[in-house]
Design a protein that fits this description.
The complex is a heterodimer. Chain A is built from no helices and eleven strands. Chain A is mainly β. Chain A starts with a strand and ends with a strand. Helices cover about 0% and strands about 60% of the residues of chain B. Chain B is globular. The chains are: A mainly beta, B mainly beta.
Chain lengths: ~120, ~110
């Protein structure tokens, strides 16, 4: 979707190295999310943000940190990558719609391999 | 028990067939979402429903709030419809996802 981009699209990194994934939006949406998608587990929430410098943990936050210094950017950092963090990572944005519910837009995903 | 259950898990259809994917949920919701993911691809939002029925091209989504059930229908299916279809709900807080339905449409 044109309003949300993730970078990089693919990355291979070594165990123990730090990795940062970037999510950039042009929609000025308040809420941003990081998910990971793994076979047999579906989509799981890592961290989310409800405003600049306002973030909170999701269900699988161990080993991950996030930062949001600007409305448009939400960064996900793996402080010391492990093989269990090999996954596809999706960013999403949401905002309240006129229908009174939150609509979501997803990024194209980042495929991360930790070797 | 998962809060969002989808059926079937896997579905193979012949081109042209009418397809139905079902989603049941056990929590109060403000909206239900149908998402599509092609192999190796991103996630696209197809519909957001809070009541009734929506149609977009060959896709139709319905929701019954009282029965806590939604269906996604694909008319005149085509091989390009082959994808994973994910049901997700929003209640108080964040999205809760179903496990997804893997659809394969053969030509």
């Amino acid at each position: 979707d044109a309003g949300i981009t993730q970078s990089p699209r693919h990355k291979v990194t070594e165990t123990g190295t730090p990795v940062t994934l970037r999510c950039h939006q042009t929609e000025n949406h308040r809420y941003m999310y990081w998910y990971r998608q793994d076979p047999g587990h579906g989509l799981r929430l890592i961290h989310y943000s409800y405003g600049v410098k306002d973030t909170d943990k999701g269900e699988v936050s161990d080993g991950y940190s996030v930062s949001r210094s600007k409305t448009e950017d939400f960064l996900l950092t793996l402080e010391s990558a492990t093989s269990s963090q090999t996954s596809v990572y999706f960013c999403a944005i949401s905002e309240l719609t006129g229908a009174g519910a939150y609509g979501y837009t997803f990024g194209s995903g980042t495929r991360l391999t930790v070797v | 028990k998962n809060e969002v259950e989808q059926s079937p898990q896997n579905l193979t259809a012949q081109e042209g067939e009418f397809i139905t994917i079902n989603c049941s949920y056990s929590v109060g919701i403000s909206a239900l979402h149908w998402l599509q993911q092609h192999p190796g691809g991103g996630i696209v939002s197809l519909f957001m429903l809070s009541s009734g029925k929506k149609k977009h091209g060959r896709l139709i989504a319905t929701i019954n709030i009282q029965e806590k059930h939604s269906s996604l229908h694909i008319t005149a299916s085509h091989p390009r419809d082959s994808a994973v279809y994910i049901c997700a709900v929003t209640g108080i807080g964040k999205l809760v996802f179903g496990a997804g339905t893997i659809l394969r449409v053969k030509s």
